[in-house]
Fold:
Amino acid sequence: MLYKINLEHILFLDIETVPEHADFNTLETDKKELWAQKSSYHRKDERTPEEFYARAGIWAEFGKIICISVGYFKLQGDTKTFRVTTFKGDEPQLL
Structure:
């Protein structure tokens, strides 16, 4: 089935995220408590919320987007090339 798809009709997106704050200790008290609650299932009590905070970028409430990359195929005759463009900056401007 994949051989029937026109490669020029496929758009690849990659969104890179990081935690909203560089360090757990810089979070406000309310956010620390929310993070502890939100991440408790994934931590399974093996790590403290502070130790697990490096993964905060995965959750929208605790992360921010730092770059978006877009890739696509360009076909010219029998030649196929893959083009990539990356956009970086503050999250509101990226979106």
